[in-house]
Amino acid sequence: MKAFKIIVVVLLVYAGIVTSFETMIGTLQPAAGKTLVITTFGTDRSPHDRVLARLDTDGHVYVSANHWPRAWYRTALANPDVQATMDGAKKDYRAVPVSGAEAARVESEHPHSLVFRILTGFPPRYFLRLDPREPASASQ
User: Fold this and answer.
1) Which residues contact 138 (CB under 8 A, 6 or more apart)?
2) Which helix (H) or strand (E) segment is 13 a member of?
3) Is 24:16 a contact under the CB 8 Å cutoff?
């Protein structure tokens, strides 16, 4: 019974560490290194911004859902017409989910450290490729 209590306490402490780390990342939205701001649009067309790591691979820009909180990712799947601000310029993109060999290639070029995976609670990682869209022409 004592071993069971120790395991429960260790799991609760670990869950607290993961929750604290995820909350810190979500609140601070660090913009160091190669980042972009993705703007997703809810069902009411209200914009929601999120700072994400920019992953450049084979001439394409990718973003990934690396954490348990991933409302931005679900919103982009529901409405793939997004905007991204990179290097100070905001442009229109189509968010395309990737899997298979393409996802494996992006993962291998942009792996996470074991420490990061531990701190985030080993969430599954999903990728979106941001394909440039032509601006909508003005209606006459």
Assistant:
1) none
2) helix 2-28
3) no
Q: Report pLDDT digits (tens) over 6-61.
A: 888 888 887 787 777 766 665 566 555 688 999 999 989 999 998 898 999 999 99
Contact by Cβ (8 Å): 84, 90: yes
Quick one: which of 113, 61, 117 has its CA closest to 87? 61
Name the more confident of 95 and 69: 95
Cα atoms in the Cβ-side hemisphere of radius 13 Å centred on 107: 13
Residue that is written with structure tokens 């919103």 in the block: 75
Average pLDDT of the segment spanning 74-100: 95
| Mode of pairing for the β-strands spanning 81-86 and 47-53 | unpaired
Whether 52 is in a domain gets the answer: yes
- Structure tokens that stand for 103 in this block: 């996802």
The percent of residues above 70 in pLDDT, for the chain, comes to 86
Contact 63, 53 (CB under 8 A): yes
Local structure of residue 113 (DSSP, 8 states)? P
Q: How many domains would you assign to the chain?
A: 1
For the domain that residue 6 is a member of, what is the CATH number? 2.30.110.10
Residue for token digits 């290639």?
105
